[in-house]
Amino acid sequence: MVAKAEALLSRLVVSENYDSVNNFLSLYDAYMDSADESLMEFFPKYNPPIRPRKNTCVGLGMEVIKCLKVLEKDYPGITRAMMLVSCDENIQDLDDYTTSFPGPQGFLIETEKDHVLVAIHVKIDGRSGVFLSDLGYHISRVATAMVDRCYPHTGWFTQSDEPHCRKEYNYQFNINNTNYVEWHERETRGANVKERLSLIYVARAYMSAVHVTEKRNLVWDLRSLLARDPKGRLSAGIYFPLKRKDQDFTIFFDGPNGKIRKKLKFETFLELQKIPDDVVEEVEQCNEQLRFRDGELLRILNRLAKIMVDNEYLTELLDVNAKINQLSAGT
């Protein structure tokens, strides 16, 4: 079943980009069309759309469920067993989080529920486990977590191995509370090793993915639009932090002699007819590798450039993000 699922997922990760740029554009357009009020007032009332081929982890999780439904014929019941599950990233106190309450309800004020993935509960010879699929973090394989941590438990695996950075992941059930799966991430850059712990709540389906997680994503201060290869490796795209000045973005794509990665200023794209020819050519190469229609990435960059000069809006958006960070930190 895992092999068949992974064959489907490796195609899906190529056909579906990760995109937290278009929902950012949609929020701006909706806010500009709204009544004269602050973004802080508008944001709680805004319902973000989930649109085809413009997906963050929420939409990608929905696409995974649709994709894997074709396995129902071979594995009756799999459609009913699949569910979106929520994830809290960067857990500070594992024992406190997992033992204070059976589920996350005790932490609802102090948590962001900032990620979504797909889970399928399984029993193998009476032994409980869960299959996990996470296209939002570019994982094209299925990770298996068994409660007893025995075969076919996946354990540590290398998610990406680039010259500058290696990322390794491990999923395991929490020993104190099997409602949670621990997601351990180890990032190695030269001699520097950084570790991170997140918690996935797998006891129930996550019913608020759009209204909580997708909405949280709207005001994050890092945006990206990324194409992946069948193994989930990033192949082309753009990414940028949101900031009030010195606004630029990174563009990357495959060139004739390897990966090309450049920083460009948003102001360059304010007027389409004035963009230098060599920059247009690079954007078009990236556009093609993102599998976009002709000129689509250029139009997106032009729209982003116009938002970046709206200092009042950017200040309001970053204030909303800071407020959410403050609430989730319990301060």
Give a nutshell description of this structure.
The protein is an alpha+beta fold and 331 residues long. Helix content is 32%, strand content 30%.
List the helices and strands and how they pair.
Layout: H1 2-15, E1 18-19, H2 22-32, H3 39-42, H4 57-68, H5 78-81, E2 82-88, H6 94-100, E3 115-124, E4 127-134, E5 139-146, E6 157-161, E7 166-173, E8 180-189, E9 192-201, H7 209-218, E10 222-228, E11 234-241, E12 248-255, E13 258-265, H8 277-289, H9 296-308, H10 311-328
Antiparallel strand pairs: 1-10, 2-3, 2-9, 3-4, 4-5, 6-7, 7-8, 8-9, 10-11, 11-12, 12-13
Description:
The protein contains ten helices and 13 strands. With 331 residues, the chain is α+β, with helices and mostly antiparallel strands. The chain has two domains: 2-215, no CATH class; 221-326, no CATH class. Strand 3 and strand 4 (127-134) form a beta hairpin. Helix 1 packs across helix 4. The radius of gyration is 21 Å and the shape is globular. The model has no long low-confidence stretch (mean pLDDT 94).
Task: Give the biggest sheet.
Answer: 8 strands, antiparallel
Content of β-strand: 25-35%
Q: Pairing-aware structural class of the strands and helices?
A: alpha+beta
* Oligomerization state: single chain
Please tell me how large the radius of gyration is. 21 Å
SSE string, helices as H and strands as E: HEHHHHEHEEEEEEEHEEEEHHH
Shape estimate: globular
Overall number of structural domains: 2
Number of strands: 13
What value does the average pLDDT take?
94
Binned, the helix content reads: 25-40%
Poorly predicted sequence stretches spanning 5 or more consecutive residues:
none
Order the strands across the largest sheet as they lie in space: 5-4-3-2-9-8-7-6
**Number of contiguous helices:** 10
